[in-house]
Amino acid sequence: MQEPHIHVGILNSSKIEFQLKGEYLIDNSQNTTGKFSVELSNGKIMLKNSEIEKEFEEQVIFSSKFPDVSFMLKNVVIGINFHWERFEDQEFNGDLKILIEDDKLVAINIVLLEDYLGSVISSEMSSNSNLELLKSHAIISRSWLLAQIQQSKKNNKEDSVNHQVKTDSEIIKWYSREDHKNYDVCSDDHCQRYQGITKIQNENVLAAIQETHGIVLHYKDAICDARYSKCCGGISESFENVWEPEKIEYLQSIYDYKFKLNDADMDVRGEAGFAKWLNPHLSSFCNTTDKEILSQVLQDFDLETQDFYRWEVEYKQNEVNNFINNKTGFDFGEIKDLIPVERGESGRIIKLKIIGTKKEMIIGKELEIRRILAEKHLYSSAFVVEKLDIKNGIPQSFKIKGAGWGHGVGLCQIGAAVMSEIGYRFDEILMHYFKSASLKRIYQ
Fold it and tell me: What is the CA radius of gyration of the chain?
């Protein structure tokens, strides 16, 4: 296998503004550089600047003539649907493709896989992170990407984003990464966070990429679908409890520590055991408040969230009512109770029963629960609910106490950062989180 080029979807808009910093070829013919805008005009792409006004049918490619040139895209959305969503200008090496998709324009960066990884691990975490952590992340990011591309080919680009089991009393949804029609991956957290050369790639990052060049996690002759999240909360979750009901051996629940704890009830699938597990002082790799370690994994906007290992939020009755009614499309009336029906191995709720004055229903899986119980997303579905100020059987507010940030499957980024700081090598970190997998170099 040779190192492939990756097509990364960066921006989707009715108008795209960009700047070519250096010489580019337009569709392998005309040399150009400078500032441009593109808009849809009568179903075609209209390219404009002070000197050029040119029309293209379905797509246009700006090919970089030299390896050190770059292009800047204006107003790229990052953190889509998260509490820190914002716009920023981003700069990229490689080629720029602009095409029409669903009556909008899409800007796509075409870049070699290893160059893509340099940006991913610098965007997902600090480029000044411990080298062993960066090497770990290079391997899981490479593995995840190649596994997605292989799966897309098997799926023949069919859309598989929304899976649903629905009855009168239950709606269970899980969300797979949809196979993008015109590119391999997008640049936001939905796939992997990728911000081109906007994020500094220092010698540490370059060394991590070079020393792991072409290495992937492997299981039974296949590249591993290597998942990861910010903070597992002390126990990682099993794949089948978050996505498709299919057991994947290398994505099973593990305790995020050197050994299984004996000072807490480990059966966090039960309410009593999970309540004990919420103790903020239990030993876990990801149980840290060390700002130096956290800053390795978390960008500035991530650090706006203060609590990762344990957290709590409190909502008024009208807030919970609005979240649930608006996002489900049902009128539950006033919310009387939120009852866990089933928990996974990490304590994450897989099924939650909502009891209202007008309607009762069970919802799941974890992302659907997080989506419904917050303006954007709740940190995780590993939580307990405390009803406060009950009047005539109706709580006037709800306190939600939880653990971890994200789905919790696979590698825990904060846990891996702690492991690297206390002396674990990259292979030891990966074998801790992906117990049945092995490492294999698939290209030079």
Answer: 23
Place of tokens 């405390």: 386
**Residues near 436 by Cβ (< 8 Å), separated by ≥ 6?**
219, 249, 250, 252
Please, where are the H alpha helices in 265-339? Answer: 271-277, 291-297, 317-328
Q: What percent of the chain has pLDDT over 70?
A: 93
Residue 26: both structure tokens together: 């337009």
The token pair that represents 188 in the structure block: 């936001």
Residue type at 327 in one-letter notation: K
Report residue 416 as tokens. Answer: 């891996």
- Asked if residues 239 and 272 have their Cβ atoms less than 8 Å apart, the reply is no
Residue 20 near residue 92 (C-beta atoms within 8 A): no
CA atoms within 13 A of residue 101's CA, in its CB half-sphere: 16
DSSP designation for 213? T
Q: What share of the chain is helix, strand, coil (3-state, %, to 5)?
A: 25, 35, 40
**Residue showing tokens 């069919």:** 158
Residue 178 confidence class, pLDDT cut points 50, 70, 90:
low
160 touches 154 (CB < 8 A): no
User: What are the CA-CA distances from residue 246 to residues 85, 208, 406 (Å)?
Assistant: 32, 33, 20
Q: Rounded CA gap, 216 and 331, in Å?
A: 48
Is residue 285 within 8 Å of residue 261, measured between CB atoms?
A: no
How big is the chain, counted in residues? 444
Rounded Cα–Cα distance for residues 40 and 100 (Å): 8
| pLDDT reported for residue 325 | 94
Handedness of CA 237, 241, 244, 245 (dihedral sign): positive
Query: Average pLDDT of 374-384?
Result: 93
Which stretch of DSSP H or E encloses residue 73? strand 70-78
> β-pairing, 222-223 with 215-219?
antiparallel
Report pLDDT digits (tens) over 98-128: 999 989 999 999 999 999 998 888 877 788 8
Q: Count other C-beta atoms under 10 Å from residue 272's C-beta.
A: 10
pLDDT category at 304 given cuts 50, 70, 90 is low
DSSP notation for 157-200: T----EEEEE-SSEEEEEE-----SSSSEESSTTS----TTSS-
CA distance 244 to 51: 52
Give CA 393 to chain center in angstroms: 39
Task: Please enumerate in sequence order all residues whose Cβ is within 8 A of that of 355, keeping only pairs 6 or more positions apart, or say none.
Answer: 335, 336, 337, 338, 339
CA–CA distance, 360 with 335 (Å, rounded to integer): 9
